[in-house]
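How it folds:
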Amino acid sequence: SSGINAEYGDLCRGPHVRNTGKIKALKVTKNSSTYWEGNSEAESLQRVYGVSFPDNKLMKEWKVFQEEAAKRDHRKIGLQQELFFFHEWSAGSCFWLPKGAIIFNTLQTWIQSEYHKRGFQEVITPNMYNTKLWETSGHLPHYAENMFSFDVEKEKYAMKPMNCPGHCLLFAHRPRSWRELPLRLADFGVLHRNELSGALSGLTRVRRFQQDDAHIFCTTEQIVEEIRGALDFLKTVYSVLGFNYELELSTRPEKFLGEIAVWDDAENRLKQALDEFGAPWELNPGDGAFYGPKIDITIKDALRRSFQCATIQLDFQLPIRFGLSYNAPDGTEQRPVIIHRAVLGSLERMMGILTENFAGKWPFWLSPRQVMVVPVMPMFNDYAKEVQQKLHNSHIVIDTDLDSGTTLNKKVRNAQLAQYNFIFVVGEKEQAGGTVNVRTRDNVVHGEFTIEGITEKLVRLRDTKSNTDILEE
């Protein structure tokens, strides 16, 4: 039933099924504490999660899926592979260990290289601001509870939960000319959002995070070209990562700011950009942001789970609220449009998704354990170190196993279980010939290569960003 009367308030409007006879299989999955209406001062309640099915066969299929998902849990793999951890003294903020930082930095460096190709300029902006910034942007009345705020010399300050208001200050700090547009500003600045402790979940829901965040300041006439560029950017990135994606155009909601004619024009421009991009897309009426229409992008991982990471949003309101303008060719002052866009979104969340997508079996270009050198006897340790140094000089992530108390076979197996992409075995023959004997974590034996030859192949494999560790002939 649904509805509220003097005696009974329905907290979960239904019915969700016509009658309970439709439920043939039921499983309670977990429970957790929560606060009434999200108020941490209120009484703590228990939230119970469950799932039901119309037959047992569907529940068995669901259980198999859950078992596979559990094997891929990024929190479990993160600890096993020593990528990251969390501590109660900084809940919701990730500690990146050296191996995890390799993956994080590889993703960031890759996006930065794409920025360079696509005419973005990277900026660095403050982490905390006077709350007057968010009063001006309009975020404060709706977002204050999600911000970490504090007093500084009798003024209220807060840690930034997003970059866009700061980028408006950057745009406005001097007069702008139409010749500077489009101005594409990118920022990997650290963001903080005050999530409730019960909502925190590994890397997918955190309090401290970084985004591949960028804002494009452009003219109305430049919208179509810039949206096409943003779509091409996400196509490039998701193709490399092996993700399929779906596009939706979300249009004017019931509550919106601005003029209908401006909205209609913007939506038509987004439709034009999507049509010219050529990928299928669907209309999602009434689900745009209050400040402008947006393109929602959903990706699917190896288990066919859906995630929304990328975003492309038009914004007419921030330029108005911050009084942004540029000098047009005819000498008049005109208002720019802002395009908010991110491709990976939160790098922390994307790391969690990628960990589970690859099940911890990282492709070579992303791998924090690319090569392990294994000497057959301690007398070849120096040669193993020589091999390590030569590949290290080519920025290959390479380690050596010099443990004299472990057998050769055990060392190779340990390296495979640790998900080293390649294992180099070296002994008398390899030292004499300046070579290494190469095999993979899947025990595919490639045989003998010169150090220079294998280095060249691995550098090519890394730079092509292939998701299969196939060495070219």
The two ends are 67 Å apart (CA to CA). The mean pLDDT is 91. DSSP finds 14 helices and 23 strands in the chain. Residues 98-117 form the longest helix (20 residues).
